[in-house]
Automatic annotation (TrEMBL):
This is Flagellar P-ring protein. The keyword Oxidoreductase does not apply. It holds the Pfam family FlgI. It comes from Rhizobium helianthi. Belongs to the FlgI family. The gene is flgI. PANTHER family: FLAGELLAR P-RING PERIPLASMIC PROTEIN FLGI, FLAGELLAR P-RING PROTEIN. Keywords: Bacterial flagellum, Cell projection, Cilium, Flagellum, Periplasm, Signal.
Length: 371
């Protein structure tokens, strides 16, 4: 017997009335903006992982692994003359890391390794010395150490189990910084703050808050908003940039962001911002379920007849309609909006359909982002 279910969502909307403005939340400048001179820099390198228990690259399928092995051994003064090796205890990997701002030579950072060939697992391996370069081609760090893999895999003759990703891992504190970045923080003449969530209102409030502080401390305004993302702060003559940044980053600002509703239809996730408003609207949501059941019957011929056994198809179709309630939504705040949606008793996929319908009706006072 086979069953097929088809579910149809029906949404009916009626627009009624308008809504009130959004509100702001207080936050420190260091939590909503970052220093332009204090950004990370990405590093990349190519290396080998050795010591794997037969889970490395097959050298025939990954010729670059064998070439790297031969080049490494030649650099160590070992002759590589002879036949091809069939061992699978080595894997070629790409090594990546983020060089933090103001990093000094001798400090350490974590690196991530990812398999390039057909290795099945990097568990138990050791990354041998690998240089990490920046976008300018200069070497800024050298990585080496034991690889930590969170996933695992087990395989037998008739079954296999895999959990997580076994072809990538991390080397905690595996890289040593060898070169510092060329820029010097204290050589600058100003500070540039970049908002993590660009917004004109927030940028103006940051500049006003900094200027009120600077007027009391240095006797004049020092900050100016350039656009929705950047705020320029000029260095006062009597100020030290490090101390100035330490004082500014702890100032509290009233933030403001556009109202958004983020919907992921694949996972059924709905994220509603605190500033989202919904005009008064009537919503009717009904779920129509169609169930198709196949119960074929075997038809036998009569005794001593020349008939043949046959299969006779039989299909039963049933239709069920649930959830025909009508609710009035009026969302002056997030709690009221969520309570109104829950009162209808629909699942997340139904809420997604309702939000799309409310947006089409012009009652959703927010940006609807569908992922």
């Amino acid at each position: 017997m086979m069953k097929r279910l088809v579910t149809l969502g029906l949404v009916c909307l009626t627009l009624l009335s308008p809504v009130s403005p959004a509100f702001a939340d207080p936050a420190r400048i260091k939590d909503i903006a970052s220093l332009q001179a204090g950004r990370d820099n990405q590093l990349i390198g190519y290396g080998l992982i050795v010591g794997l228990q037969g889970s490395g690259d097959s050298l025939r399928s990954s010729p670059f692994t064998e070439q790297s092995m031969r080049a490494m051994l030649q650099n160590l003064g070992i002759s590589t003359q002879g036949g091809q090796s069939s061992a699978k205890n080595t894997a070629a990997v790409m090594v990546t890391a983020n060089l933090p701002p103001f990093a000094s030579p001798g400090s350490r950072l974590d690196v991530t390794v990812s398999s390039l060939g057909d290795a099945t697992s990097l568990r138990g391996g050791t990354l041998i010395m690998t240089s990490l370069s920046g976008a300018d081609g200069q070497i800024y760090a050298v990585a080496q150490g034991s690889v930590v893999v969170s996933g695992f895999s087990a395989q037998g003759q008739a079954a296999a189990v895999t959990e997580g990703v076994t072809t990538s891992g991390r080397v905690p504190n595996g890289a040593i910084i060898e070169r510092e970045l060329p820029s010097k923080f204290k050589d600058g003449v100003n500070l540039v703050l970049q908002l993590r969530n660009p917004d004109f209102s927030t940028a103006v409030r940051i500049a006003d808050t900094i200027n009120r502080f600077a007027a009391q401390r240095y006797g004049g305004a020092v900050a100016e908003p350039r656009d929705s993302q950047e705020v320029i702060i000029e260095k006062p003559r009597s100020a030290d940039l490090t101390r100035l940044m330490a004082e500014i980053e702890n100032l509290v600002v009233e933030t403001d962001t556009p109202a958004k509703v983020v919907v992921n239809e694949r996972t059924g996730t709905v994220v509603i911002g605190a500033d989202v408003k919904v005009s008064r609207v009537a919503v009717s949501y009904g779920t129509l379920t169609v169930q198709v059941t196949e119960t074929p019957q075997i038809v036998q011929p009569e005794p001593f007849s020349n008939g043949e056994t046959a299969m006779q198809p039989q299909t039963d179709i049933s239709v069920m309609k649930d959830g025909s309630n009508v609710a009035i939504l009026n969302g002056p705040d997030l709690r009221t909006l969520v309570a109104g949606l829950n009162s209808i008793g629909v699942k997340p996929d139904g809420i997604i359909a309702i939000l799309q319908g409310i947006k089409s009706a012009g009652a959703l006072q927010a940006e609807l982002v569908i992922q």
